[in-house]
Amino acid sequence: MKTLDRILFKLLLFFVRSPAKEACAEFFGTLFLVVCGDGVMATVTLGRLGPHGVVVSAIGWGLAVAIAVAIAGSVSGGHVNPAVTFALASVKKCPWKYVAHYMAAQYLGGFMAAALVYIVYYGKYKFLLIFVKLHFYSMKRLTARQSRIVPL
Protein backbone atom coordinates (compact mmCIF):
# COMPACT_ATOMS: atom_id res chain seq x y z
CA MET A 1 0.00 0.00 0.00
CA LYS A 2 2.86 2.38 0.77
CA THR A 3 4.33 1.78 -2.67
CA LEU A 4 1.02 2.61 -4.32
CA ASP A 5 0.72 5.79 -2.24
CA ARG A 6 4.23 6.80 -3.22
CA ILE A 7 3.52 6.20 -6.92
CA LEU A 8 0.27 8.16 -6.75
CA PHE A 9 2.00 11.02 -4.92
CA LYS A 10 4.73 11.22 -7.59
CA LEU A 11 2.10 11.06 -10.31
CA LEU A 12 0.19 13.93 -8.71
CA LEU A 13 3.40 15.96 -8.41
CA PHE A 14 3.95 15.43 -12.12
CA PHE A 15 0.62 17.07 -12.94
CA VAL A 16 0.83 19.89 -10.38
CA ARG A 17 1.76 23.20 -11.96
CA SER A 18 4.54 25.01 -10.12
CA PRO A 19 6.70 28.02 -11.00
CA ALA A 20 9.89 26.00 -10.50
CA LYS A 21 8.79 23.31 -12.97
CA GLU A 22 7.75 25.90 -15.51
CA ALA A 23 11.00 27.82 -15.15
CA CYS A 24 13.00 24.60 -15.58
CA ALA A 25 10.99 23.71 -18.68
CA GLU A 26 11.60 27.16 -20.18
CA PHE A 27 15.29 26.96 -19.25
CA PHE A 28 15.83 23.57 -20.91
CA GLY A 29 13.67 24.44 -23.90
CA THR A 30 15.60 27.65 -24.53
CA LEU A 31 18.90 25.89 -23.87
CA PHE A 32 18.08 23.25 -26.48
CA LEU A 33 16.85 25.85 -28.98
CA VAL A 34 19.97 27.99 -28.75
CA VAL A 35 22.45 25.09 -28.62
CA CYS A 36 20.95 23.45 -31.70
CA GLY A 37 20.23 26.66 -33.60
CA ASP A 38 23.56 28.34 -32.92
CA GLY A 39 25.36 25.02 -33.33
CA VAL A 40 23.86 24.64 -36.79
CA MET A 41 24.85 28.19 -37.70
CA ALA A 42 28.39 27.68 -36.38
CA THR A 43 28.68 24.49 -38.40
CA VAL A 44 27.39 26.19 -41.54
CA THR A 45 29.64 29.22 -41.07
CA LEU A 46 32.81 27.41 -40.08
CA GLY A 47 32.25 24.27 -42.13
CA ARG A 48 32.01 26.02 -45.49
CA LEU A 49 29.03 23.98 -46.69
CA GLY A 50 28.54 26.18 -49.72
CA PRO A 51 25.05 26.37 -51.22
CA HIS A 52 23.82 23.52 -49.01
CA GLY A 53 24.30 25.70 -45.94
CA VAL A 54 20.98 27.47 -46.49
CA VAL A 55 19.04 24.20 -46.47
CA VAL A 56 20.98 22.84 -43.50
CA SER A 57 20.42 26.00 -41.45
CA ALA A 58 16.70 26.15 -42.27
CA ILE A 59 16.11 22.50 -41.39
CA GLY A 60 18.31 22.74 -38.29
CA TRP A 61 16.55 25.82 -36.92
CA GLY A 62 13.13 24.39 -37.75
CA LEU A 63 13.84 21.16 -35.90
CA ALA A 64 15.39 23.07 -33.00
CA VAL A 65 12.26 25.19 -32.57
CA ALA A 66 9.93 22.19 -32.88
CA ILE A 67 11.82 20.09 -30.34
CA ALA A 68 12.29 23.03 -27.93
CA VAL A 69 8.55 23.73 -27.96
CA ALA A 70 7.90 20.02 -27.44
CA ILE A 71 10.25 20.04 -24.43
CA ALA A 72 8.63 23.01 -22.72
CA GLY A 73 5.16 22.93 -24.24
CA SER A 74 3.40 20.51 -21.95
CA VAL A 75 4.76 22.12 -18.78
CA SER A 76 4.85 25.87 -19.42
CA GLY A 77 3.34 26.51 -22.81
CA GLY A 78 6.62 26.36 -24.74
CA HIS A 79 7.39 30.03 -25.14
CA VAL A 80 11.21 29.48 -25.19
CA ASN A 81 11.72 33.14 -26.15
CA PRO A 82 11.34 36.24 -23.96
CA ALA A 83 9.70 38.16 -26.83
CA VAL A 84 7.05 35.45 -27.19
CA THR A 85 6.45 35.45 -23.43
CA PHE A 86 6.03 39.23 -23.38
CA ALA A 87 3.78 39.21 -26.44
CA LEU A 88 1.53 36.50 -24.99
CA ALA A 89 1.32 38.36 -21.69
CA SER A 90 0.47 41.59 -23.54
CA VAL A 91 -2.55 40.00 -25.20
CA LYS A 92 -3.54 38.25 -21.95
CA LYS A 93 -2.78 34.71 -23.16
CA CYS A 94 -0.23 34.28 -20.34
CA PRO A 95 -0.65 35.69 -16.81
CA TRP A 96 1.77 38.48 -15.92
CA LYS A 97 2.75 36.68 -12.71
CA TYR A 98 4.61 34.06 -14.80
CA VAL A 99 6.50 36.50 -17.01
CA ALA A 100 9.37 37.26 -14.60
CA HIS A 101 10.42 33.69 -13.91
CA TYR A 102 9.84 32.60 -17.52
CA MET A 103 12.07 35.39 -18.82
CA ALA A 104 14.76 34.81 -16.20
CA ALA A 105 14.89 31.11 -17.09
CA GLN A 106 14.92 31.88 -20.83
CA TYR A 107 17.76 34.38 -20.54
CA LEU A 108 19.77 32.04 -18.34
CA GLY A 109 19.17 29.13 -20.73
CA GLY A 110 20.17 31.26 -23.70
CA PHE A 111 23.40 32.45 -22.10
CA MET A 112 24.32 28.95 -20.95
CA ALA A 113 23.68 27.60 -24.45
CA ALA A 114 25.74 30.35 -26.08
CA ALA A 115 28.60 29.54 -23.70
CA LEU A 116 28.36 25.84 -24.62
CA VAL A 117 28.45 26.59 -28.35
CA TYR A 118 31.39 28.95 -27.83
CA ILE A 119 33.30 26.28 -25.89
CA VAL A 120 32.61 23.59 -28.49
CA TYR A 121 33.61 25.74 -31.47
CA TYR A 122 36.36 27.77 -29.77
CA GLY A 123 39.27 26.43 -31.84
CA LYS A 124 37.62 27.02 -35.20
CA TYR A 125 36.14 30.32 -34.02
CA LYS A 126 39.57 31.59 -33.00
CA PHE A 127 40.92 30.71 -36.44
CA LEU A 128 37.99 32.50 -38.09
CA LEU A 129 38.62 35.65 -36.03
CA ILE A 130 42.27 35.71 -37.11
CA PHE A 131 41.22 35.27 -40.76
CA VAL A 132 38.61 38.06 -40.51
CA LYS A 133 41.08 40.43 -38.84
CA LEU A 134 43.68 39.78 -41.55
CA HIS A 135 41.06 40.23 -44.26
CA PHE A 136 39.87 43.57 -42.89
CA TYR A 137 43.43 44.71 -42.26
CA SER A 138 44.28 44.12 -45.92
CA MET A 139 41.07 45.90 -46.98
CA LYS A 140 42.14 49.11 -45.20
CA ARG A 141 44.84 49.78 -47.80
CA LEU A 142 42.47 49.87 -50.77
CA THR A 143 41.72 53.06 -52.60
CA ALA A 144 38.13 54.14 -53.21
CA ARG A 145 38.22 52.85 -56.78
CA GLN A 146 39.67 49.48 -55.77
CA SER A 147 37.08 49.01 -53.04
CA ARG A 148 34.29 49.21 -55.65
CA ILE A 149 35.89 46.42 -57.67
CA VAL A 150 36.70 44.03 -54.76
CA PRO A 151 33.10 42.82 -54.07
CA LEU A 152 32.73 41.82 -57.73
From TrEMBL:
PROSITE patterns: MIP. The lineage of its organism: Eukaryota, Metazoa, Ecdysozoa, Arthropoda, Chelicerata. InterPro entries: Aquaporin-like, MIP, MIP/Aquaporin, MIP_CS. Aquaglyceroporin that may modulate the water content and osmolytes during anhydrobiosis. Its main location: membrane. Keywords: Membrane, Transmembrane, Transmembrane helix, Transport. It is found in: Membrane. Belongs to the MIP/aquaporin (TC 1.A.8) family. The chain crosses the membrane at residues 30-47, 54-79, 99-121. One of its GO terms (cellular component) is basolateral plasma membrane. Pfam families: MIP. One of its GO terms (molecular function) is glycerol channel activity. This is Aquaporin-9.
